[in-house]
Amino acid sequence: MGKKMLIVYYSVSNGNTKRIAEQLQKATGADIARIETTTPYSGSYNDIVEQGQREVNRGYQPEIKPLKRNPADYDVVAVGTPTWWYTMAPAVLSFLKSCDWTGKTVILFQTHGGWPGHVIEDIKSVCKGANFSCEMEIQFDGAGGAELVTWDKNIEAWIAQIRKEIEMKPEEVSVFPVGGKNDAFAKCFVGQSYLNMLTTDGVVIGNVTFEPGCRNNWHIHHAKNGGGQILLCTAGRGYYQEWGKGAQELHPGDVVVIPAGVKHWHGATADSWFAHLAVEVPGEETATEWCEVVSNEAYIALK
């Protein structure tokens, strides 16, 4: 469960900004939305360039269609624009003016043909109250074509920075302390988990945190009498599955009661951190039997 990110972009002509936005979306799994003017631009490339110059000179803000995503629902918004006469495209100005940027993290990227101008500075002046990170200028050929000039490795490095920006840290997942890496039980998990025993007196309760894709092996809580386990889900999204049954997706507030003797597994979804409190139900002669791993094939099939 990383920071929730939306990519918003405007693109025209050769679709260069669209290309970069989609590359970023593919690498991060973020949501994406395209800015579209109510009245599309028409004519040749040069016609659009001339119209754009007139609009930029008078600070024109064209009417745009409602966005398919609401930026208010996201922690991070990446905004992409082509460079129009040294500044952002007018449609991007219309979009920026329609939003409240207070407290948002904004990632800016522009495409240009060799003259980046003052796009980044102009956008920052509009997004009052925002925090800015990972800005990027990406150059294509100067004749208005689609040939990429900026090195691919530079774009990949920029995307890696963004992934680090939106990645959630373990201590941000839950209100309960995460604890250290669950090394003692590493062989019983696929991926990285964390364990903090909240209490071992009376009722034993541990806070278990899973990185995206992490899950424990199939296992059984045995007991002569009583026993079993209760999961209190506190953060992120996860799965719980009993042997021979379909998996159920888990969310904060869900409670799972696992009777003794039931073979099962639980863990995070592929794209989200997950945390739950594991409450051991008191019983006689309790023990946990660890079984086979949840295979990648079976796990991926849950999507």
Q: What fraction strand?
A: 25-35%
Number of strands: 21
Give the topology string: H per helix, E per strand. EHEHEEHEHEHEEEEEEEEEEEEEEEH
Mean pLDDT: 94
Question: Quick one: biggest sheet?
Answer: 6 strands, mixed
DSSP summary: helix tally: 6
Give unreliable regions as ranges. none
User: What is the gyration radius calculated from CA atoms?
Assistant: 25 Å
Q: Globular, elongated, flat, extended or rod-shaped: what is the shape?
A: elongated
- Termini, distance in Å? 16 Å
Structural class: alpha+beta
Q: Which range best describes the helical content: under 10%, 10-25%, 25-40%, 40-55%, 55-70% or over 70%?
A: 10-25%
Keywords:
303 residues, 6 helices, six-stranded mixed β-sheet, single chain
What this model shows, in words?
The protein has helices spanning 16-28, 45-57, 90-97, 119-126, 152-166, 296-300; strands at residues 5-9, 31-34, 76-84, 87-88, 105-112, 131-139, 180-181, 189-190, 193-199, 205-210, 215-216, 219-222, 225-226, 229-236, 238-242, 248-250, 255-258, 264-268, 274-280, 283-284, 287-290. The chain has 303 residues and is of the alpha+beta class. Strands 1, 2, 3, 4, 5 and 6 form a six-stranded mixed β-sheet that branches. The protein has a six-stranded antiparallel β-sheet with strand order 7-9-10-19-14-17, with no helix packed on it. Strands 16-15-18 form a three-stranded antiparallel β-sheet, with no helix packed on it. The chain is elongated, with a radius of gyration of 25 Å. It starts with a strand and ends with a helix. The mean pLDDT is 94.
